[in-house]
Amino acid sequence: MMIRIPCFFAALVFSAFVLTGCKSPQTYFYTLSSAVDPMAAAEIPAHSPVAVGIGPVSVAGYMDRPEIIIRDNAHAVELQDYRQWAEPLVNGLPAVLTRNIAALLPADHVDSYPQTTPTPLAFRVQVEITRFDLSRSGEATLTARWQIFDAGTGRFVLSRTSTMNEQAADAAADAGVGALSRTLGKLAAEIAVQIAMLAGVP
């Protein structure tokens, strides 16, 4: 016996099948975290307390997008459409870097620049992040040019280019973000050491 299915019901079943089959993958969002190595903190020289402003912190144009970036080679990158930053890196990177440096210099006054408080600054740190991405194997790389200025006179004091690498624990996206966070912690440690040396002994 042939069973006749009403046309509207057949269309409904077909539509449900199409919608299920074409459902987009879920998008996941990630944030950077403060990641300061306790051993790095122990290596900060003793120094007189100072007030330091961190900023401006700029990022390369290719990083000014929500997608996490996978680097294939020196010339090619892939944007992770379903793995994205929860906030723009131009906001997240300066905030985490400032928190990291403040954690490494607990006796000092460390603030973002321009300042949110009227405390007179001794030094200002300007940072340009030119690379911040992951390789296919899960290696995180951060490259930054940074300069320290005498905040009172505006005089240039010191300039460095730093490249930091960290290997993710596994292939998961959150492990890669963790590795990127640790590179930012390493950069903070390099900057903190130089600030302490410039501040001088107590």
Architecture blueprint of SSEs:
Elements (H helix, E strand, L loop, with lengths): L6 H15 L6 E3 L7 H5 L8 E9 L7 E5 L5 E9 L3 H16 L4 E4 L10 E13 L3 E12 L5 E12 L5 H27 L3
Helix pairs in contact: 3-4
Describe the structure.
With 202 residues, the protein is of the alpha/beta class. The chain has a single domain, classed as ABC-type transport auxiliary lipoprotein component (Rossmann fold), CATH 3.40.50.10610. 31% of the residues lie in helices and 33% in strands. Strands 1, 2, 3, 4, 5, 6, 7 and 8 form an 8-stranded mixed beta sheet that branches. The N and C termini lie far apart (97 Å).
Oligomer: single chain
Per DSSP E runs of 2 or more residues, the count of β-strands stands at: 8
How can the largest sheet be summarized? 8 strands, mixed
Computed CA radius of gyration, to the nearest angstrom: 23 Å
Number of domains as seen in the coordinates: 1
Helix content: 25-40%
Summarize it.
With 202 residues, this protein is of the alpha/beta class.
Provide the descriptors you would attach to this structure in a database record.
alpha/beta, Rossmann fold, elongated
